């Protein structure tokens, strides 16, 4: 008979193993950050090395005894593994140690549960937790093995375990239906933005890279930002003004992490679609992190998983203040900005960031000069309303020469709405020097 699990505590024994396979390796420093972000108190850190995990206990019997002794010596209340454990491995380790065991996935889910504030975020976390729990119902709870019976309790012969599984499936189906409604609402908002032809940017990056700090500086918002993993979970969308481009939608998304559990990727698909549907991804990188190259690889892997690998990307190397590097823009062979070095904390390099956005998003900005007759004052007023007029000169015959700069899409929409052609406006494009004006 399995034991009845005691109440869980916060004094944690941390277990980290190094494996020969690169795909199974985890970062021990990041593990400690995850535990402290969850509110745990690491009282012992046990490390080891194995060729491959043990099928039954994940660790060997000698390492298991070392964990047992650490529990007794430090009055530990739970054991946290920096690895994904199978349901049977969790159950077997709990039976041996007589305390609660949590793997890396369960730890990340716990942090997400603490961080979720919006209704959508709570639904997404609950869905991921239920999906994770559905494979672990039998661990540690003896009442789930008992059959219903007794006077007044004899039913169709359904066990408590089967009942709980059925209730879980019903709840998962209900949450998925509600999240589908959220997805449709987000899609409607995105369609409205696309109709208005407002470019959409999405901040992505490894957790704790400074995305929310950069978002707050750019939008003068007060999104929660702290030096901890997954400080912000719920997505936030704001509008900013970018040079010649005009209004731009900026979305702050959940941070990524190495080996992000697939259940979380699925549960947060409605949120991550903000990245999938963006016109430009702003990949925020902690340039002071010695693991930044591996972190970049992990982020690109998640972007590929959610179908955002082909979206144009601008790298932002944040936290230059920590490594004493001057802000700058790096460009590719065509002169297009590919990376901006800045510090969101002291706002240095933000002008360069805006410049890079203007160059990338403003690639379809057109410059032209037109001549309007004295009777075309309405067209002149509309162009001023668009903020497209750079310079105006009055001719001797009363006509006006206007030098314009605006998005190509706005220009074509203007011509279509007013049923005029460029030829009728005596357009000469492009205007490259001051002498060519009119």
Automatic annotation (TrEMBL):
Protein name: GTPase HflX
Record-annotated Hflx-type G domain positions: 199-365
Cofactor(s) essential for the protein: Mg(2+)
Alphabetical UniProt keywords: Coiled coil, Cytoplasm, GTP-binding, Magnesium, Metal-binding, Nucleotide-binding
UniProt cross-references to Pfam families, sorted A to Z: GTP-bdg_M, GTP-bdg_N, MMR_HSR1
Natural source organism: Zhongshania aliphaticivorans
Family that this chain belongs to: Belongs to the TRAFAC class OBG-HflX-like GTPase superfamily. HflX GTPase family.
GO CC annotations on file: cytoplasm
């Amino acid at each position: 008979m399995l034991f009845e699990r005691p109440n869980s505590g916060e004094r944690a024994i941390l277990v980290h193993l190094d494996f020969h396979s690169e795909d199974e390796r985890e970062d021990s420093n990041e593990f400690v950050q995850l535990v402290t972000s969850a509110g745990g108190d690491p009282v012992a850190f046990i490390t080891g090395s194995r060729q491959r995990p043990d099928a039954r206990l994940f660790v060997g019997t000698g390492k298991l005894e070392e964990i047992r002794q650490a529990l007794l010596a430090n009055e530990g209340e739970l054991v946290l593994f920096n690895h994904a454990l199978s349901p049977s491995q969790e159950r077997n380790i709990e039976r041996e140690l007589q305390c609660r065991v949590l793997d890396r996935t369960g730890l990340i889910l716990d942090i997400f549960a603490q961080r979720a504030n919006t209704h959508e975020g709570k639904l997404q976390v609950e869905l991921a937790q239920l999906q994770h729990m559905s494979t672990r119902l039998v661990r540690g709870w003896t009442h789930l093995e008992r059959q219903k019976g007794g006077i007044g309790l004899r039913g169709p012969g359904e066990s408590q375990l089967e009942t709980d599984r059925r209730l879980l499936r019903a709840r998962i189906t209900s949450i998925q239906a509600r999240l589908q409604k959220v997805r449709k609402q987000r899609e409607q908002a995105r369609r409205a933005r696309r109709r208005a032809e407002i470019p959409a940017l999405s901040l992505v990056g490894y957790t704790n890279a400074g995305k929310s700090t950069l978002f707050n500086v750019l939008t003068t918002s007060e999104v929660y930002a702290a030096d901890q993993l997954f400080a912000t979970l719920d997505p936030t969308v704001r509008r900013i003004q970018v040079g010649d481009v005009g209004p731009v939608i900026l979305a702050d998304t959940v941070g990524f992490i190495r080996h992000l559990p697939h259940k979380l990727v699925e549960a947060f698909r409605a949120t991550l679609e903000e990245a999938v549907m963006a016109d430009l991804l702003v990949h925020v990188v902690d340039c002071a992190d010695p693991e930044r190259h591996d972190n970049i690889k992990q982020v690109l892997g998640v972007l590929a998983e959610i179908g955002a690998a082909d979206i144009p990307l601008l790298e932002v190397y944040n936290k230059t203040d920590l490594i004493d590097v001057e802000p700058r823009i790096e460009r590719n062979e065509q002169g297009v900005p590919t990376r901006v070095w800045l510090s969101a904390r002291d706002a240095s390099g933000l002008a360069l960031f805006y410049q890079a956005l203007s160059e990338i998003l403003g690639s379809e900005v057109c410059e032209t000069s037109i001549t309007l007759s004295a009777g075309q004052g309405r067209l002149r007023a509309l162009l001023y309303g668009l903020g497209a007029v750079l310079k105006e000169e009055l001719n001797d015959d009363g006509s006006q020469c206007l030098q314009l700069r605006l998005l190509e899409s706005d220009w074509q929409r203007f011509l279509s709405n007013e049923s005029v052609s460029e030829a009728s406006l005596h357009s000469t494009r492009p205007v490259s020097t001051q002498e060519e004006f009119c």
